[in-house]
Design goal:
The chain is mainly α. The protein has ten helices and no strands. It has one domain: MetI-like fold (Orthogonal Bundle).
Length: 290
């Protein structure tokens, strides 16, 4: 009879636990893996890219995918794969910074309007209601047009247009939390409102905020690339993905690979953020039984 050592049993139990966790969180693992690849490309793009992003060779202009240029070249002979890899930094930076800003202001407004009663909360609710009547894309285009093309205008346009939806979601969660017994107990013993917000309300709303931020990041990528496509984003020769799409549309009939390359990168990044958001929701939401 073969005996199993306690150490072997513990190791086997750990492997089973990890395997079960991975099987229950496929979306989370898949999204994290995809986004990790983009983060690596954003940090080390120049070292990973086979050519310089702006290196021109007119003798190789508009060449299709080949062993030398896996995704082809543009009209100036620049390698599309290199431009997509280096452009990851700009697209990912816009998405992360804009969502971080919109979450900061959206959470702040949501906490105040959901927890505080009075004219201030009423004014915030009215302002958010008005903003929500305008589609995100229309609002972002309007803001970007006023502020002008460029990285700053792009970030501000996305941040402002994404703040109202986040504020409304946080407000709903805060209104649920403020009716809980532990909030009433904190008020009874004289805890100050701002301390209740920071120590009790905000931590209990963190799950909703994290999930919504990850989902909004995917939408931020789409909005950023759409504005870049319209000429309101980062300007050439910076290889931002939306700018690459806008440049490639002029050659769509003769060189469709110019649009396919950045389009595929956009799709994969949005997929990564959406998988991450779905995975975080399944993992962190106790109502789903995980």
């Amino acid at each position: 009879m073969k005996l199993v050592s306690p150490a072997g049993t513990s190791s086997s139990a750990q492997r089973v636990f990890v395997a079960r966790w991975l099987s229950k969180n496929v979306y989370l693992v898949g999204g994290t893996f995809l986004l990790l690849m983009f983060v690596i490309a954003a940090l080390f793009g120049e070292q990973i890219a086979p050519y310089g992003a702006n290196k021109q060779n007119l003798l190789e202009a508009l060449e299709g995918p080949s062993s030398d240029h896996w995704l082809g070249t543009d009209p100036l002979g620049r390698d599309l794969l290199s431009r997509v890899i280096v452009g990851t930094r700009h697209t990912l930076s816009v998405a992360v910074i804009s969502v971080s800003l919109s979450c900061f202001f959206g959470v702040l407004l949501g906490l105040i309007s959901g927890f505080v009663r009075g004219p201030l909360a009423t004014a915030i609710d009215a302002l958010v209601d008005v903003a929500l009547t305008i589609p995100n894309m229309i609002l972002a285009i309007s803001i970007a047009a006023v502020m002008g093309a460029g990285m700053t205008g792009l970030i501000m346009a996305i941040s402002i247009s994404f703040t109202p939806p986040i504020s409304r979601i946080v407000r709903g969660r805060v209104m649920e939390i403020r009716e809980e017994d532990f909030i009433a107990a904190a008020r009874t013993i004289g805890v100050r409102p701002w301390r209740i917000l920071l120590r009790h309300v905000l931590p209990n709303a963190a799950t909703v905020i994290v999930i919504e931020a990850s989902l909004q990041a995917g939408q931020a990528v789409l909005t950023a690339t759409a504005l870049g496509f319209l000429g309101l984003g980062v300007q050439p020769p910076t290889p931002e993905w939306g700018t690459l799409l806008g440049y490639g549309r002029e050659y769509l009939h003769v060189a469709p690979f110019m649009v396919i390359a950045p389009g595929l990168a956009i799709s994969l990044m949005v997929l990564g953020f959406n998988l991450l958001g779905d995975g975080l929701r399944d993992w962190l939401d106790p109502r789903l039984g995980n």
